[in-house]
């Protein structure tokens, strides 16, 4: 398979950066590896529940078809004496692809986002971050799209809405692309809000009108012009549009879920905005201050594809660490 920006190295560089950061005694972070061969792997009942949530936010046919396609292809390779991991094919014009492990990887990613919700709601940690891939916010209720197979942010929010201590949830999406999948799903939930900042024009070529919409008035689109930087475009809209919709006197969320994409970086080739890594530190601190210490916050990785070291303004791992820095008490 040829190079694809949505690659395993995205997680590797973030984990390595986090290890370096914590080894320097700059913060206290508990890192859990939920891969099948790790001590922290998810029990079967957790994965069964994650599948149930996926079937609530997506059509059951979509979930079942992806499971069948991936697992049957894996078994066929095994029967043929090949390595179990293999490329299956593309879903949408070369952007979104499947391997024999895609379903199980995305099922564990869903469980990881759900577990991060549980961690903060149960007071085990002040904040949590689901460092998973692929991204999820483009996956609609019926369609994988834009590197995304299942919608993890929507799954986490819907799970949170079932908890007695969580009556209202806000999803803040600062990925540079509009999460039309999250909007498609969340529009049906009166107790969940979704607000997105995103470059226009850019994939998925919607969400171009600023404003509030949906039958429950729970969706807000905040389009950003190309070449916008923190001091020219982002800061004003984040302060005046995103934060008030996230939390206000008439909408006090119990939980904020951040769809943390880092592809608005100046160095990222998948868009043309001009944020610097340190700007994510600023946004995180502003979000914390705005919602207050009583509101729980979890983060989950969406986009962010510039991995090369030394890039002007920073890369994915730099922006990720800046977010972690902003969460230190």
Task: Report what the structure shows.
The protein is an alpha/beta fold. It has a domain at 109-326: Arginase, Chain A (3-Layer(aba) Sandwich), CATH 3.40.800.20. The mean pLDDT is 95. The protein has a 7-stranded mixed beta sheet with strand order 3-9-8-4-5-7-6, with helices on both faces. A two-stranded antiparallel ribbon has the order 1-2. The chain has helices at 9-23, 44-57, 60-79, 102-121, 152-160, 180-186, 234-246, 277-291, 316-326; strands at 87-90, 97-99, 127-130, 169-173, 192-199, 211-213, 219-224, 255-260, 296-301. Strand 4 (169-173), helix 6 (180-186) and strand 5 (192-199) form a beta-alpha-beta unit. Helix 2 (44-57) crosses helix 3 (60-79), helix 2 crosses helix 4 and helix 8 (277-291) runs parallel beside helix 9. It is globular. The N and C termini lie far apart (44 Å). It contains 9 helices and 9 strands.
Please describe the structure with a list of short key phrases separated by commas or semicolons:
9 helices; Arginase, Chain A; two-stranded antiparallel ribbon; 329 residues; globular; single chain
List the helices and strands and how they pair.
Layout: H1 9-23, H2 44-57, H3 60-79, E1 87-90, E2 97-99, H4 102-121, E3 127-130, H5 152-160, E4 169-173, H6 180-186, E5 192-199, E6 211-213, E7 219-224, H7 234-246, E8 255-260, H8 277-291, E9 296-301, H9 316-326
Parallel strand pairs: 3-9, 4-5, 4-8, 5-7, 8-9
Antiparallel strand pairs: 1-2, 6-7
Helix pairs in contact: 1-9, 2-3, 2-4, 2-5, 4-5, 7-8, 8-9
Structural class: alpha/beta
Total strand segments: 9
Reported for the largest beta sheet, the result is: 7 strands, mixed
Helix segment tally: 9
What is the residue-mean pLDDT, rounded to a whole number?
A: 95
**Between the first and last Cα atoms, what is the distance in angstroms?**
44 Å
**Order of the strands making up the biggest sheet:** 3-9-8-4-5-7-6
Name the helix and strand elements from N-terminus to C-terminus, one letter apiece: HHHEEHEHEHEEEHEHEH
- CATH class of the domain at 109-326 reads Alpha Beta
The level of helicity is: 25-40%
Domain Histone deacetylase: 4-308
Organism: Chaetoceros tenuissimus
InterPro entries: HDACs, His_deacetylse_dom, His_deacetylse_dom_sf, Ureohydrolase_dom_sf
GO molecular function, one term: histone deacetylase activity
């Amino acid at each position: 398979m040829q190079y694809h920006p949505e690659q395993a190295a995205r997680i590797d560089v973030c984990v390595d950066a986090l290890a370096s950061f914590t080894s320097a005694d700059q913060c206290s972070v508990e890192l859990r590896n939920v891969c099948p061969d790790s001590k922290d792997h998810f029990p079967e009942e957790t994965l069964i529940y994650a599948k149930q949530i996926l079937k609530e936010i997506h059509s059951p046919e979509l979930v079942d078809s992806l499971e069948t396609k991936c697992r049957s292809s894996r078994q066929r390779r095994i029967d043929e004496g090949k390595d179990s991991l293999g490329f299956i094919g593309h879903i949408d014009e070369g952007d979104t692809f499947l391997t024999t492990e895609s379903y199980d990887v995305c099922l564990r990613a869903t469980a990881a986002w759900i577990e991060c919700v549980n961690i903060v709601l149960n007071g085990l940690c002040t904040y949590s971050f689901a460092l998973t891939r692929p991204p999820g916010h483009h996956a609609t209720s019926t369609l994988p799209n834009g590197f995304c197979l299942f919608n993890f942010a929507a799954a986490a929010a819907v799970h949170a809405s079932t908890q007695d201590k969580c009556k209202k949830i806000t999803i803040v999406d600062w990925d540079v692309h509009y999460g039309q999948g999250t909007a498609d799903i969340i529009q049906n939930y009166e107790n969940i809000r979704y607000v997105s900042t995103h470059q226009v024009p850019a994939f998925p070529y919607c969400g171009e009108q600023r404003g509030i919409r949906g039958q429950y008035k729970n969706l807000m689109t905040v389009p950003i012009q190309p070449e916008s930087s923190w001091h020219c475009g982002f800061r004003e809209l984040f302060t005046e549009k995103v934060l008030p919709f996230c939390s206000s006197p008439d909408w006090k969320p119990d939980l904020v879920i951040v769809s943390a994409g880092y592809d608005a970086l100046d160095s990222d080739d998948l868009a043309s905005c001009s944020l610097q890594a340190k700007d994510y530190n600023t946004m995180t601190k502003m979000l914390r201050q705005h919602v207050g210490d009583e509101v729980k916050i979890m983060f989950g990785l969406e986009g962010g594809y510039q991995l090369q070291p030394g890039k002007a303004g920073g890369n994915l791992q730099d922006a990720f660490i800046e977010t972690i820095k902003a969460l230190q008490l």
